[in-house]
Amino acid sequence: MNWPMVRLDKVAKIDRKGIDPSSIEAGTKYLGLEHIASGGEIISAECVDEGQLASTKFCFEESHVLYGKLRPYLAKIALPDFSGICSTDILPIQPGPDLDRRYLAFFLRQPHLVELASSRSTGVNLPRLSPKALAEFEVPLPALNEQLHVAAVLEKADKIRHKRDQAVSMSDELLRAVFLDMFGDPVLNTKQMPTAALGDIIKVSSGNGLTAKKMDPNGRHPVYGGNGINGFHSEYMFDEPQIVIGRVGVYCGAVHVSEPKAWITDNALYVREYKRPVNQTYLAWALRFADLNQYAGRAAQPLISGSRIYPIEIVLPNEDLQNNFAAFVERQKKFEAKLLAACNDAKSLFDSLSQRAFRGEL
What is the mean pLDDT of residues 55-66? Predict the structure, then answer.
């Protein structure tokens, strides 16, 4: 079915209406890109404060589509159910009477539209899509009742995808709850379990430097930095999984367990020696609960070292309990892998439906 293609600015208005700070009422809601999830859900909205009013803000209403124009957040397209003010990195789009806003939001979220927006963004440090470039996008425009049908179908598929994503995101919460149930609060040691200083359990070392430029783009071995995998390389340092601890910067103290055959950079520490028996999976979770970031030096930027974390006492239950927890984590990982596969199936279904929908094939 061939639907007419219409420029966005012919059927909608990019409504960049500024606001006088003196006119802001108490309790007015503020949205920045940080308040919008990657899939477009509004995570939270805070009441505006004086600091946020120091620079220009846009007004938005319940009838707007909010479009994140800052790369890489071009898929942050939200449908608010309240009015307020937003960052200028968000463009409020007011659909006209011939354009349904849910239909427009689903259209703009399509991967190829996000890629198009990315390619047309300008700026060196923080590329942005200009209102003019957005206005030039062409939208397929069937009759309004057909738009409503497309939006309803895609909304159902999107809810399935969202529920499966939620199930995956709750996996860590479940493991945290199981850890607390088995071992109590590890900081307060509410179950009065044996404790030991980290320096009596492990020794740590920094990884080996490997910049992004030196990584082999065709490599298949994961490279771990301070916050998990940050690239791939043709060589690796370790055959077996290692506990990785962010060493420097904003991810200082973050804890991961590497995949087999991985490289660890000097932005992280790794456990190079176990001085007494301890289950690796249990230890990784105990380190997460220890909140290692609080022990970082703050002279220039956050930094931790062995000498800073060795005095930290952690709960060290008997090996049977540690192993039981690790076995539960392993079972949960297998279940999570199935959930991820279901999520990928749901995403593929949604993408396929979306492509068919905007070709008029539903």
Answer: 88
